[in-house]
Amino acid sequence: MRPLSVVVRTGCDLFAWFLIVFGANVIIHGDVTPGGGFQGGAVAATFITLLLVAYGGKKVFSWVRPGIFNGMLIFGLMAFFLLGLMGFPNSFFYNFIAVPHEVVQATGHGVIPPSGTIALMDIAVGIEVAGALSIIVLSMFRGIRLFREGPMEEESGHDR
Amino acid sequence: MNWNEHFPALLLIIPLFGAFLAPVCSLGGKMARNILLVAASFLTLVVAFLLWRSVLANGIQYYVMGGENFRLALPSGMALPVRIILEVDAFSAFMALCGSIAAFAGALFSVNYMNRFSGQSRFTSLYLLLATGMLGMMITGDLFNFFIFIEISSIASFGLIAFWRDKPSAIEASLKYTLVSQVGSMLILIAAGSLYGKYNALNMAAIGSSLTMGTMEKLALVFLVGSLAMKCGAFPMHMWLPDAYAEAPTGVTCLLVAVSQASLYGLMRVCFSIYGVAMGSTFVPWMIIIFGLASMFFGVSMAVVQHDIKRLMGYHSVSQVGYMLLGLGVGLLVLGDARGMADFGFTAIKGGVFHVFNYTMYKALLFLTAGALYYATGKKDLNEMGGLARRMPYTTFMFVIAAAAISGLPPFNGFVSKLLIYESSFAVHPSLAVVALLTSVLTLASFVKVFQTAFLGPEKNNLLHVQEVPPAMLLGMVVLTAAILGATLFPSWTLSNLVEPAARALVDQSGYIGAIVGGGM
């Protein structure tokens, strides 16, 4: 895939980072608003998709290392799992740091979100999904290149 | 902290943790990853065994995920159970034991079998994820979570069936399975949703306690029975099964056999524990019996003409599932009738449940021997093999045991369970037993064919280099052979300790419901 026109690339430069910010916003507020880890992670993963479409594979692969996404994947999975395990004397997945409603009203909840592990698990899932979907997009891109047998359809209107 | 109480959760935690850990372990090289695969499945087997023992000793065990207390099924002020609840009775524990034996054997086998292929870190992850999904289906007490676990196991198996993605036939098999099983899963979701809409509960026990038969319940039952019969490979919906079993790597096929049993478990759980006596008519039991008869006969008649050894065994899977459907269907037919239940119904259920154990063991072993043949010779077609008994004595020995067991030759365990099914289905109508007997004869015929062409006869010139397979593969087969021989040598112990508690738990609807909802009945 070749880079697209300068208009698209400039648009990408402007908006790509907003996707990360918006994804992070959806992830972090996942416990109190619609959305959550999976949705936010999917939004964040469109970052890499947008870069691939606008700049083409050669440039993007020189910028990112797929290992990073693998790391995100493993970190997210492990964080989710360990949060589940930490509820163990009571039960698996027990919400051990939830702040009760009365306490939140009286004194606030400090650094920990009132929903406790639910919010933290949302973040873990968000990181995991962002990494995994990025890997999927990159693998699909590699898959496209396998089938490049000569020019399939001439693209025009590009200034390379 | 008493770990005994946490066994239901641990049964899911261990393979799930293994699946998540696989990408990390792969950084440590092949050895670390193989150790992880075998260790995680062995620990799962140990936990499944301990869970089974504790359920037999203490009765139904349930576990509330995320509760302040894992025994808090009904939080104060709630009329219905709300959290994710795992409910393990003797039948679930029995199924989990069968499934984890097959998973352990498949894992041992895969260590050597997959050695020469790339992509093993993903393989390990998916394999353990498939085991998680299977065990989750067997021990969950919640209809929606059943759907979740069925999806986990389906998605893991899509990936594993298409593991050799450079083979078009593998991709085709995986795509076929994807389409069929996604339609099935959606039907389960619709059924769970409609039951939730009416009863405000997703917990199987809670739904079962207040279920009254109406149009909507009938519709949900049709969706559940249809899609789960499809997932376990009953006749008209079996077309994905031979392809999927033949194309998956052999260790995976061994586990897929157990996964199809998890769907059968779901079918029986829905029929016996959710609907139970409330089902009223005999239509659904007869449908299950007819599914069973059709699967038995058509499965085996398609198997005898196959040349590809794994496809042949795949068609035999269809026909063997028929026996269980027949046995359990006959039991379901007389569920509300105490006299019929005492006369032949309970025998039929015992036969069906025992056949689940036998089928999982010998069919997994047969697939492993087929994989061993492929590993050693590089051939799948029976016509290209011959005279391998001298080159591969251990594999031959184990194949003979498994083939004798599946054909129902006395004194092997397959004979015991089939006899129970024959004599009980005869009481319903003699023609049922006739079809079952005919199927057994054809099964024997087709395995005699396999044995004769692959193992006996003159040695082929291009197979002179063949050697016995490596020790880990043999060990995987030995695990299953030991299980078959155990059930063969101690049939009365197996029946009274393994099978009867499971069968009794299956028909005890009020016990299953009462454990969660208390006096809800």
From TrEMBL, chain A:
Q: Does the keyword Kinase apply?
A: no
Q: Which GO terms describe its cellular component?
A: plasma membrane
- Keyword terms, alphabetized: Cell membrane, Membrane, Transmembrane, Transmembrane helix
Per the record, the coiled-coil ranges are none
Localization recorded for this chain is:
Cell membrane
Xref: InterPro entries: CPA3_antiporter_subunitB, MnhB
**Segments traversing the membrane:** 12-30, 36-55, 67-88, 118-141
Pfam families recorded for this chain?
MnhB (PF04039)
Topology within the bilayer: Multi-pass membrane protein
Q: Which residues form the Na+/H+ antiporter MnhB subunit-related protein domain?
A: 7-134
PANTHER family reported for this sequence: NA(+)/H(+) ANTIPORTER SUBUNIT B, NA(+)_H(+) ANTIPORTER SUBUNIT B
What is the protein name for this chain?
Answer: Na+/H+ antiporter MnhB subunit-related protein domain-containing protein
Question: What organism does the record attribute this protein to?
Answer: bioreactor metagenome
